[in-house]
Each structure stands twice: as structure tokens, then as C-alpha cells.
Amino acid sequence: MEDPTTPISCQNATKFNSEVSTTYRNTNQPFSIAYGFGFSAGTIGQDVVKLGLASDSSAFTLANIYFGQTVQKDTQQTGFSGIFGLSYSASGNNVPPVLVQAHKKGALKMPLYSIYLATEGNVHWKPGGVFTLGDADKKHCGEIVNWIDIIPNNYGHWKFELDEIKLESNVIINGGQSAAIVDTGTSLLLGPREEVIKIYNHYGANLSDHSIPCDQNVGPISFLINGHKYEVTKETLILKRGKDNNKCIFALSDFGTATNLWVLGDPFCRKFCQIHDIEKLRVAFPEAKKKH
């Protein structure tokens, strides 16, 4: 039975019990973080953090790590019990993210982490991807040919300049003066409304419900970043809607507000791995290796 003092927003989540930890320390310092969609708030604690199965002796273990103990969040039904922030800087009350703390302790082989997303996510218990600490993922990702410097910002976003966006027939959607954020937590590509409308019209998709015929002939969307072309293709741009092979979703949406920002979500992240350098503040997008 739930503790009546537990906020409703946290009652469906797996909770951390600091009273049974012999290594826990309460800092009595409050924190609050606003995300692109939602927020969380609570107090900052310090304890041993283990990444991996608790019963696995080879799990990555870090001592004296600061973390947020959430007692308030914006939704009841999230499907998960916490957020493992992967920013390069503190986003709440000057407490660095876990991997930045790990790097400062000398716990990482290299100041890198890598993310590989499988083309098919966690469907029927198939592996959804691989998260690599302290190195580039050479098994699932190709060679790094382009390092992209991050634009410093107050939110700790992995934000960078976006040179240009083109469609299949060299139709220029964006001629510069834009920026982009890479984010595995965003399921679609997001962009300025005017530019998104142009792409929808070009490919014959319906922006009102994001629908598109599954057999529609859709060429790649090319993002030019630091002089290097990254093409997002039909494989990750058109998503099946349930079991109906005739109804598909075009994985692109707009912010609905005036902005020059793009968010390169899962359609981009499934095509390209993300290698993050938390020391030199740069990111690389080697192409994900195809399954054989």
C-alpha cells in the first residue's frame, strides 16, 4: 500500500529508500529541473551509484555520486522511475551530471560516451540499443570522420550549428543561421513550422495527423553539419502505425512556435550513432553499422 505522504506523481514509480543504505548522505540541498517537456524537483543526495545489474560484480560502480531524489514530477504515467541525465554541464543547482562526476574522478577510460539505437526498438524484447561508457562504440558504429563543436548554452544541450538542410532534388529548406540539438529522448525530428510544412508538402504527407502512405516514395532529408552531409532516409522517416501496413506516420513534426532550432531525434539517432566528448565539448555522428 502506498505511503499517504508520497506525492501522487511518484506513487507508480520504483522508489529509492535512503534509510536502508549505509553509504547514503543527505545534503539537505533542494533541486529543480525544467526539461523541454516537464519538470522534476526534490533534494540532492549522495551515495554509491552502480550502472548495470545490482547482482553483477562487473557493473560500473561509482562512489560518492550526487544525484537528485525526486519528490515531485509533472506526470504519473511515465513508464520509468527516473532520468539519467547525459548533459555536459549542471542543469540543476550546480550539480554535475553523473558521467561528468565520473570523469572528474578518473573513472572513465576516455571522456566519452556512445549511444547506438537499433533500427527496431524494444519490440518483442529485442535489444533496443547499446550505451557505451568511456569509449566509442566500434562494434555498432562506423569510423568517426567529423567532430562537431558544441555551442555553449545554459541548458547543457548538445547544440551545434546547422549549415543547411536539403531534400532529394537539392531543394534548399534551410540556408544557414540555424542550430540543432541531438536528443535520443525525442521520438521524431522537430523543426521550425515553416520549414516542416515545406517538407510535408514536398513528400505528400499530412501534417495534421502526421500520416503518410506507407509506400510513398520518400527521398532522404540531408542535414549539412560542419561541412559533412548526414542523410536521414525512408527507413527511419516512415514508421508503421500499429499492425496496419497501409497506415504510416511521417516522423517529423514542428514546434508550433517561432524558432530556428531543429531537434534531431530518433529518426536521426537510429541512422547515426552519437559519440559525446564531455571534456572537449564536441559530438560525432558515425553511421550505425547495418545488421547482416
TrEMBL record:
Q: Which residues form a coiled coil?
A: none
From the record, give the cysteines joined by S-S bonds. C214-C248
On whether Disulfide bond is a keyword of this UniProt record, the answer is yes
Q: Which Pfam families match?
A: Asp
Q: Which UniProt keywords apply?
A: Aspartyl protease, Disulfide bond, Hydrolase, Protease
* Protease found in the keyword field: yes
Q: Which GO terms describe its biological process?
A: proteolysis
GO MF term list: aspartic-type endopeptidase activity
The entry's family comment says: Belongs to the peptidase A1 family.
Q: What is this protein called?
A: Peptidase A1 domain-containing protein
